[in-house]
Amino acid sequence: MSRYGWLCLSLLLPLLAAAAPPGTLGYQARLADGSGQPITGTRNITFRLYSQPSGGVALWTETLNNVQVDGGNLAVQLGASVPLPDGIFGSQLYLGVQLQGDSEMAPRPPLSAAPYAKRAAALYRNRIEVPADGTPSENGAALLAVFASLPAATQSQPVVVQLDAGEFNLVTGRITVPSFVILSGQGSGSRLFNNGSGQTILRSSVADGAVVLLRDSASVRQLTVINSASAPVEQLPPVSAIAAYAGTDPLAPVTGIHLDEVEAIANTPSPSGATAGAYLCVTGGRIEGTRMRGFGGITTHGLRASCPAGDGLFIEQLQLEAESLNGTNVRGAELATGGPWQDLLVVIDNVSASNVSVVGILINDNNADSGASLVDAKVYIQGNGVENNSAGSTAGIWVQGADVAIIRPTVSIENLRYNGRGIRITALGTDDDYAPITDAHVNLQVGLTGGGVGSAFGVLFEGAGQQIAGAMVRVSCTGNAPCFGVVAGAATDGSVQPKVPSLSGLDVEVVSTGTTAQAGRFQEPVDVANSRFAASNGTGQARALTLSDLNNVASGRVHNLSNVRLESDTGCAVAYNTAAGETLSLRLTSSSLTGIFCFGQNLGSSTLRCAGNTRRNGDGTVDFLSNLCP
C-alpha cells in the first residue's frame, strides 16, 4: 500500500491549460504523506492512464523527474515527454500516480469530461461530413468518392468521416478505412436499437470480403453495415460486413482498431461459403456496445476473431447472432487467446438437421496464448425440434487448448435432438491447459425419438486443467440419450494432466427417461467438496457419482470427496468402476448418501476410507455410518 495519498481530490482534475503545449494535459493536485501532512520538496513521479479504476494494464506511462511539490501542491503537464495517445480518449480513463520508492496511490481519480471534449475539438478539426440527401446509391457513390481522396491522417491529427442519418448503398463497392481515420454514423441497430429514423446504414454486396475493411488504428462507430452478397466458396476472408487484417493477408493482424456502437450484418442468401458479421485479425483492438450477426453460410459466424497471430482483443457488451438452416458449422463467436471478453450475449436459433457443429462461443489456442478471461457471457441456443445429424454436436462454450478463465457464464440449450455440451473444455496434446470455471449456470435439454443417437453433458472436461468453483448444472434427457451432469475425463490422447481436478460448490441435477443418468463422472482422481450430485431416471440406472481411473495413474492420487450430497432415486449413490490391474483410492468424509454403494469388477487392492458419513434410506430414516464405508 502506498505511504502517500490525496490531500484533496476536488481541485483541478485534470484540465487543458489554455497555454499548455499541444497534445498535453495540465494536471493539478495536492499530495499528503501517510499522516495527512502535505508534502514539500522535489519528487520523481510516474503517471499512468488506465481504462479501469483498479488493476489492469496501463494505456500510457510517463515519469517526470524533480517535480516540485510545495505544501502538497503540484502542477505538471502530462504528455510533455511521452506523447498522450489520442485514440484512448473515447471512454472513461483513470489516472495512476506513483512517487518514486512507493507503490501507486489508491484510489485512482477519474479524468473529468473536460479533457475529452476540449481534446476532441482540437484533434478532430479534420472532419468530413457526408450528407444522405440523395438516393441510397447516390449517397454511396459520394461516400466512395470521399474515401478516394481522404487527407492524410496521423495519431495527433486523425480524420473523421461523419455520415448523416440515412442509407448509403455502395452496390458492390467497399471502403478501406486507413489508419487514424474514424468512420462515424448517426446511430445503429446495436446499443441504441432504434432501427428507424436517425440511423445510418451502409450497405453493399461484396462477395470476396468485407464492406468495410479496417487498417491499423482505424475506428467505426454508430453505424450499421450490411453485406448481402452470396459466399461463393469456403475461404478466408469470409463474406462479412466488417473486417480487419493487414494488406491482403487475412491472417496478418492489424493493431488498435476500435468498434463502438456498431451493427455488422452478413446475410448470405445461399449456403455455399463462409459468412461472418465481422472477421477480425487484430492485436490490441476494442469492441464496445456492438451487435454482430451472421446468416446463411456453410460456415457462419457472428464474430470470427481467431487468427493465430491475433491477441489482446478487448470486448465489452457484444451481442452475437448466427443461424444457417442448411449450413454445416455455426458459431456465435470464435475467439483466440486475448481479452478480456466481457458481457457477451450469444443467440443461436433453429439448430437444424444440417448443422453438424454448433458452438455459442468457441475459444481456440493461438501462438500468443497470453491468457484470457470470459466474463458474464450468456449463451442461448434453441433447436428446431428435428432429429439432428448424429455425427455432430452443439456446445454452449467450447475451449480448445487455451488458458482462459470462465467467470459467471450462463448457458441454456433447449429442444436439441442430438449431442449437446453445455460447457466443454478440451486439452490439446500434453500442454498444461487451464480453464477454470467460476459461478456457472448451465441448463441443457436433449430429447431423442425413434432411432435418434446423441448424448448430453452439462460440463465436460476432456483432459485440461479441471476446476470449478461454484456451478448450478441442470441436464434433462428424453428418449435414449445418455445423460451426464459434470464429467472430468481423461485427455483424448491418454496423457496425464498435471493438475488434479478440483471441484467445489456444485449443485448438479440430471433427470433422464433413458438408460443412463449420471450427475458426476470422474475418470481420474479428483477433489470434490461442498457439492450436491443428484441423478434420477426411474429405471434403476441412475448414478450420482461414477468414479474410475481410465489411464491407471492413481499412484499418489486419491478420489477425495468431502461434504458432498449424493442422491440417486433408483440406483447408485457412488459407482466405483475398476479394471484389471487398477489400484484406486477413495476418501469419503462428512457426506450424505441416498442410494447404494456400487462396485465394479476387479476392485483389487483399491483403498476405501470413509468417516462421518450418513445414508438416507427409502423410508426417510437416516443411518450414521461412523467410519464404515457404505
Q: Mind sketching the topology for me?
A:
Blueprint: E1 4-8, E2 25-33, E3 41-50, E4 60-69, E5 73-78, E6 94-99, H1 113-123, E7 126-130, H2 136-148, E8 159-163, E9 166-169, E10 175-177, E11 181-184, E12 200-204, E13 210-214, E14 219-227, E15 239-244, E16 254-255, E17 258-267, E18 274-280, E19 282-283, E20 286-295, E21 299-305, E22 314-323, E23 329-336, E24 341-351, E25 357-364, E26 372-375, E27 378-383, E28 393-400, E29 404-407, E30 410-416, E31 419-426, E32 437-447, E33 456-462, E34 467-478, E35 483-489, E36 502-512, E37 517-522, E38 527-536, E39 542-547, E40 559-576, E41 585-589, E42 592-599, E43 607-611, E44 614-616, E45 622-624
Parallel strand pairs: 7-8, 8-11, 9-12, 10-13, 11-14, 12-14, 13-15, 14-17, 15-18, 16-19, 17-20, 18-21, 20-22, 21-23, 22-24, 23-25, 24-26, 24-27, 25-28, 26-29, 27-30, 28-31, 29-32, 30-32, 31-33, 32-34, 33-35, 34-36, 35-37, 36-38, 37-39, 38-40, 39-40, 40-41, 40-42, 41-43, 42-44
Antiparallel strand pairs: 1-2, 2-5, 3-4, 3-6, 44-45
